[in-house]
Sequence to fold (336 residues):
Amino acid sequence: MVQLCKQVLATAAVLAVVRAHPWGSFQLSSANPAWVVKRTLYDLHDISDQGRKDKLTQGHKNAVTVAAKALEKMGGANVGKIKQVFKNFVGDNQDGTGSEANGKTTIYNDDYFVPTEKQFPKVGDGKTPFCSLKTADGKTGAAYFKRNNNGAAMHFCDKVFERANLETLKADNCAKIGDQVSTEKLTKNFIGANVWHEFMHNPRIGREGVLMYVVDHVYDAYQCHQLAFNEKIEERQKTITNADTYVWFAVDIAFQEICGREFKEPVDEKKKAGDVDAPNSDPVADDPNDGKCDCGESGCTPDSRPCCANNSCKPFEDNGGLLKVTGPSRKRNKAM
Fold:
């Protein structure tokens, strides 16, 4: 699993998550202990079921804990804007509740996103809510980030509430995880991974970090690995804007330390996974200004930090200089 981390950052001077920590040796202790200051959870006022509210609260805290571990290990490493993505989510300290930006996202009880065929090709019909849709091979979605009239919003499908929290996965020396990097045993069985993934689509977290939308190019550990090591540079460049890559990057680092061991590299579980390729958001379409400056009369709108009160702003860069890969591309074992 170590390498997944290494290439993610190397591919765009940045972030490839697979099996070798990208910044060399890590300090297991932090000069700035990241578990102290009070932060802001996402808004759960619309969730009426207390059991679900508790589950989502713990899922958010678990997501911050895992992301904080990755941020802590980066230290002073030169990882470009990737580090900013983690900071946007975790905040200056990692007490388990995350940055203030997280509190501006509302979690809704109702499945409010009804995808059209254009939004969800061959599946969406403009009538069926997201969580009830199935692909031809039976795949279903787990959650989505989708702005509504009130701003940044998310919904988690029923099956997410059956997934484990961090304490459950840590039990018995991480027995439930086994010794393989497994999508089914980790991210498909860990609510914190679902929460972290959806926040990557929030422009306040992902786009404000790398100045590009973070979308879904591929899912799961194996596909993220393949993307990071793809022979085509234009494919490798997608690593920096792939949501699941950030998830595996954080999960890699956190669980190696939490479980006290390294894991075998991922294998292709695509045929077995039930929701690997079900799209879960459309962040580009969610931006009402189509990437333009979001300044208003009183200053910035919630999704555009670069805006200024005088209606001027710094335009988002096409790549921020992050996607330059120097040197010849090296062939790698596709079976890794």
